[in-house]
Every structure is written in C-alpha cells, then in structure tokens.
Amino acid sequence: MSLGPHADFIIAAYAVTIFIVVALVSWVVLDYSAQRRILDDLEERGITRRSQREG
Amino acid sequence: MPIVDLANPTRFLNIVNRILPWLITATLLLFVIGLYRVVNAPDDYQQGATVKIMFLHVPAAWLGMFGWGLMSVAALGTLVWRHPLADVAGKAAAPIGAAFTLICLITGSLWGRPTWGTYWVWDARLTSMLVLLLLYLGVLALYWTAEEPSRGARAAAVLSLVGAINLPIIKFSVDWWNTLHQPASVFRMGRSTIDPALLIPLLIVALAFTLLFLTLHLAIMRNELLRRRVRSMRLLQAQRLAEARA
Question: What total number of domains does chain B contain?
C-alpha cells in the first residue's frame, strides 16, 4: 500500500486518533480499577451502604 | 425486563457488567474488518491516498455531534423527568464527545493542508465545530468542578440544551454559507456522492467507532456510579465518626 506524497499527513492523522482513543480507554480502565479499590477498602473497614445493610 | 428497572443503579450496573464483554468483542471485530477494508480501499481520483483520512475524520465528526445530542436528551431527563441515571449518562457522554470532536478537528486540519493548501480557515463548518469543542470543555468544567454533583449536573444540563442550537448550525453550515468545507456527501437528499468502494469501508469504520462510543459510554457510566457510591459511603463514614465523637 503506497500512501503517496502526503504520507506524513495520513500517518499523523492515524497516530493522533490512536493516541486520543488509547488515552481515553486507559483513563476509563484506570478509573474503574481505582473506584473498585476504594470501594473494596471502604467495605473492608465495615462501611456499607444503607441498601446493603437492609439486604 | 421493564425499562423502569434501568432506573435502579444496582440493576443497571449488573446489566452493564453483562453487556460490556459482548460490546468490546463486537467493537474489536468491526475495527478489524473496517481497517482491512480501509487498507484495501482504492485511492481517490483527485485526492489520492489522503482520502484515507476521511475514514477517521467523518466518523469522528458524526460522533462529536452524536455525543452532544445524547447529552441534550440526558439533559431533558435531568431537568424534566429527573431520571436518576440521566445526569450520569450526560456526564459520561461529555469526555467521549469531546475526544471525537478533537479527533475531527485535528484530522480535518491534517486533511485540509494537502487538499486545500491550509490547515485552518475560519469558515462556518470549521468554526462551528471548534465552538462544539469549546462547549464540551465548558460542560466538562461544570461537571468536574462542582462540589455537589447534582448542582453541577443541573448547570451542565442547561448548557447542554442551549448548546444543542449549535448542532443544526454545524450540519447546515455548508448549505447556509459559502464554505471551503465541502457540502454533505453521505447523508444528503438523493444518493451519496461517494463511490461504494470508499463508502462501504467508511460505514463499517463509522459503525465500529459508534460501538466504541457506546462501550466507553457504558463503562464511564459504571465508573461514575461507583464514584457516587464511594462518595456516599465516605459521607456515611464521616457521619459515624462525628456521632462517635459527640
């Protein structure tokens, strides 16, 4: 596959898109594990939500 | 299952946990098929290989606008129906919509230089898209700086509804004003002006990006619900400490 005389622009466009998507996905994954860790820590210390106590 | 069950955050989280693996698989599969078709798509007779930027730029533009549309519907849910998940849905759509709008602007600029001879012009389509990015940043600032989540959600919902005025401006800017940006070529009266050899890969990649949007949206909604759970548990912990000291 030849990208012609403007290959730099095409490669830059794909690189930027991949970078932004990977950054977004990484933020979502890291945020999920952080929230889960804090929740597990709170539950270990005996802090439970009202709905959990009633259940 | 009745739709009203989705109003219960715990049930919603259970549904999301079940759906997400399937959505991730479908998204990856569609990206593999889409990228295969993109690599094998022919060059444009005028633009040559730079047409490959279209496969990123066009879906990003659609999803940047779709994100704001989603936030506007969620805003109605927050302000009118007071649905418990509406502001979570609105807040979750904002960073994804902002990311796609940013991709649209950058890839458009990189596509503009070899085809138009310039990275940027202040024409109606480009400017209204930049305004959309600024609106996204405003909404994100409202969500992320509000100390009380519900207060931030109401302000963001109002801005979402006001900002929705920009969506028809973006869509019809190329018809209403004389712009350097080309007029609509996929969704227009009559048939698309794009050859099927380029249109089919474009639609597959657009569907893949749409599934990515939905996957990320559900994942961010799940994170937000967990964050609110953490907040309420910390408040409970603080309340217990205060009671113990009294």
Answer: 1
